Amino acid sequence: MRVAFLDDFHNAYEKTDGVAQLRQHADVCIFTEEIGVPSELGGFDAIVATRERTVFDREMLESLPDLKLLCQTGNHAYHIDMLAAEQLGIKVGKASGGFCGAAGELAIALMMSSMRRIPHCDAALKAGEWPTPMTPVLRGKTLGIVGLGNIGKFVAGICKAFGMEVVAWGGRLSDTAAAEVGVRRVDLDELVAISDVISVHATLSPATRSLIDARHFALMKPTAHIINTARGPIINEAAMIDALREKKIAGAGLDVFDTEPLPTDHPLRKLDNVVLTPHLGWPTDEMYAQFADASLEILLAYKSGAEFPEFSSTHS
Hints:
The protein is of the alpha/beta class and about 325 residues long. About 30% of the residues lie in helices and about 15% in strands. Helix 4 (about 100-115) crosses helix 6. It is globular and about 60 Å long.
């Protein structure tokens, strides 16, 4: 079996145990740069896609007649034409990699960066200034978590250790499930109205697209900060920009955007009350190792004819 690992821009897969073990069963090629043309992938039976860096639309899939298995890392396959894959007989394995706290850790970093004005002060000091802003702390504040999944629970635990009160909302979240994590379930309107920090950890779906819109920004405290390490379109970007420009809220910490990479002329780049990071939530040493292990399991299961977790045309 010939296996290609795509888009390893960090040269990380070669150092993982998963790839080392896979080499005992397959011919492995790791692409550390973006592929130029689909023909570069000719002859590979299986491809491990690194998150959503390469788009597999129908045209791309049809250009890969040897491909039998597409091993998708992460929990989503927004960039794969699942219907085309099904019609072409290409299985799409779900190598989620399991839980990783990287996005949760980044959310905490963005909270503190936005609230304590860390990037602003860093830039000012390097420019020869000595700013001394009075800034809010996390202790004693209310955190509102939008989407209490694994990452949301992880963030809740850390913020409770900081001495924050934590409330949460989720489309299917029950009072019992929230209480098990030690947080209080509230509806979304109450969450945005009472929270000093709002941290988004929901999954992007038709139901959550523009979930937080202009009406919600109007309910927020003028001292509130909003953090998003989930998916950009969960927040209505235009409404958020208006709220930040008009100082209806105090600030934002954003790792995800409607369009990525963020266009050079994007208005978010010009706001002084926003901390921006270039989708740093997932690319960590831990996550690459987990992706390699998960891909190994799927590839060996496929090779032996065993079952493995798959995406379907109705689930991306």
